[in-house]
Amino acid sequence: MGEGKDYFNQALSDFMFEVASGGSIRHLVDLGYSVDQIMGKLAFPTPRARVEKVVYKHMTETGLLLSKLPVDEQTFRVATFQARHPDQISARFLKLLEQNGEENAYLECPFGELAKDDPQRLETVLSGLNSREREYIKGILWERNIMYHRLNSRMREIAAKLVLGGNAQIRCLFLKTKEVLVVKKKV
User: Fold this and answer.
1) Average pLDDT for residues 160-181, to the nearest whole number?
2) For 30-57, what is each residue's pLDDT tens digit?
3) Which of 4, 14, 53, 71 is the most exposed place for a label (fewest CB within 10 A)?
4) Residues 26, 159, 63, 11: what is their CA dihedral angle, to the nearest 10 degrees?
5) In this structure, is the dihedral angle defined by the CA atoms of residues 38, 18, 49 and 168, taken in order, positive or negative?
6) Which of 140, 148, 151, 152 is nearest to 37 (CA)?
7) Which of 11, 13, 41 lies closest to 26 in space, CA to CA?
């Protein structure tokens, strides 16, 4: 008898969460909000861990975040690009985005791997980001392996700062044209 009651209570809890917060969280993810920003917008108190799980699930279900590319990267052509200014990076991204579409453009993200294996290196890599950008990256439940985040406007901004901060080189993958763009800071 207790199992049925537990199941009912869990189902009721899930339903109430969905009505109170689930749709709002997914909508705010679509607008590019970080977990901290989403928490500040919710009308009902929601545990951070629950928000993070909904954010992660929505990102993976919509293809904003991939744990594996849908194509074999071995067939891609690799090009290296050095930049001194965000406008140079943005111009290059925009050209490739025009050819591929945003839905076929991803930034390679080693953040989960770094968080678990070398947290100090992660802090160094993220040091060129402002607090809003850092909180966006840190609010995602990154898997330990490399993941891929769609190159939407928020990630293009973050990618440029990662490079120009001098603390990282980035790899952008364009699935339609089968290109990898490695971007480094020009010294």
Assistant:
1) 88
2) 998 999 999 998 887 888 998 999 999 9
3) 4
4) -30
5) negative
6) 140
7) 41
